[in-house]
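Help needed: design a sequence for this.
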């Protein structure tokens, strides 16, 4: 069985039962063999390695959390470790997988009728069909709950969608896009599954990104796009239901942040051991050791937070403020940690050859998506004071 990751100083992985640890190691082996060698090349070209989807599907982990998909259900701890492991290899591919399994499949599982869940989730669990999640808009990010401009208008047995979405991961090639739009009749947010190729629906790739370049983020347009009533998520009645999806996936982003900073620490540690200056490895210099220990402290503290969060999830006692604090804290520590790793590598830290440049850039996206630090801070602040400070 694989050894623990170098950065897992407190041996958090030992908390997994043997069967789940074997799943983690199987995924780790795939990521190291198939994904890691391709990451820098595809990142540099801003291209997506579609040939890897079959390999991810063969792992059999995409639909494990959902009753409609076969297989033994994983603990929240294993799900977290899998998100961490994917980001430890490449944050873009971790985002691709998280959008598909967490945001898209999670929306259908939480807000779909039994018939809808049976119609979509099994094929998505086998990754025969890929999903996307469309919430953010060109003029609406943190304020999208109240300022959503994409509208839905019912006409008989169809809904007519008009508007635009932006930053939609997997948006250029997804088979099913979960689109959130405001019903003009009652002013409430509802969810719709829009299939690729639906008339009135177009997607265009966002170019010139400096982070998560492998992720195919898209601008989506809906111009009189007609969606049948059977594609309206039957249990999505307001933005409260949308927020419930984000609460669950936010914890996954915190785990991804741990994976990114753990990778940065391990890259820096390995580099320090072989890079020589003044006639000896820089690992023997006090200031270098100080950087390494600060990085390891961030990794370990954040690791402990997300492990406890997973335990609360499995116990059914976690709340919005738990995942919000984890997302805000871990992504902030991640941003700090990758910066120290880049500093340790000096000029070599800004080229892809040593990997760390990719992690530094990708950290910026994780820091912002699925709720900025400021928004998550206000969620926690409201919980601890009892007073909402949102505008």
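Sure. Designed sequence:
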């Amino acid at each position: 069985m694989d050894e623990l990751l170098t950065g897992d100083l407190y041996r958090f992985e030992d908390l997994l039962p043997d069967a789940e640890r074997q799943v983690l190691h199987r995924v780790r082996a795939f990521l190291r063999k198939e994904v890691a060698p391709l990451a820098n090349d595809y990142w540099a070209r801003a291209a997506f390695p579609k040939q890897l989807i079959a390999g991810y599907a063969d792992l059999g982990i995409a639909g494990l959390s959902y009753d409609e998909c076969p297989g033994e259900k994983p603990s929240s701890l294993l799900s977290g470790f899998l998100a961490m492991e994917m980001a430890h290899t490449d944050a873009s591919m971790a985002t691709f997988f998280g959008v598909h399994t967490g945001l898209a499949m999670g929306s259908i599982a939480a807000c779909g009728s039994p018939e809808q869940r049976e119609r979509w989730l099994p094929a998505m669990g086998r990754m025969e069909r890929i999903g996307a999640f469309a919430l953010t808009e060109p003029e609406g990010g943190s304020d999208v709950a109240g300022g959503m401009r994409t509208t839905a208008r019912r006409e008989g047995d169809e809904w007519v969608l008009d508007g635009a979405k932006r930053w939609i991961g997997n948006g250029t090639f997804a088979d099913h896009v979960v689109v959130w739009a405001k019903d003009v009749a009652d002013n409430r947010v509802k969810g719709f599954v829009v299939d690729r190729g639906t008339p009135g629906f177009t997607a265009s790739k966002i170019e010139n990104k400096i982070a998560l370049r492998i992720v195919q983020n898209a601008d989506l347009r809906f111009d009189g796009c007609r969606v049948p009533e059977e594609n309206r998520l039957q249990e999505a009645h307001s933005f409260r239901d949308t927020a419930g999806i984000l609460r669950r996936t936010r914890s996954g982003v915190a785990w991804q942040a741990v994976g990114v900073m753990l990778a940065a620490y391990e890259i820096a540690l390995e580099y320090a051991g072989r890079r020589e200056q003044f006639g000896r490895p820089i690992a023997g210099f006090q200031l270098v050791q100080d950087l390494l220990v600060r990085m390891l402290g961030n990794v370990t503290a954040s690791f402990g937070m997300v492990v406890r969060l997973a335990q609360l999830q499995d116990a059914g006692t976690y709340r919005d403020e738990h995942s919000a604090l984890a997302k805000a804290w871990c992504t902030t520590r991640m941003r700090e940690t990758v910066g120290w790793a880049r500093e340790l590598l000096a000029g070599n830290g800004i080229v892809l050859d040593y990997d760390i440049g990719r992690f530094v850039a990708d950290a910026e996206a994780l820091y912002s998506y699925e709720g900025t630090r400021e928004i998550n801070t206000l969620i926690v602040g409201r919980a601890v004071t009892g007073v909402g400070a949102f505008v």
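The first strand starts at residue 131 and ends at 134.
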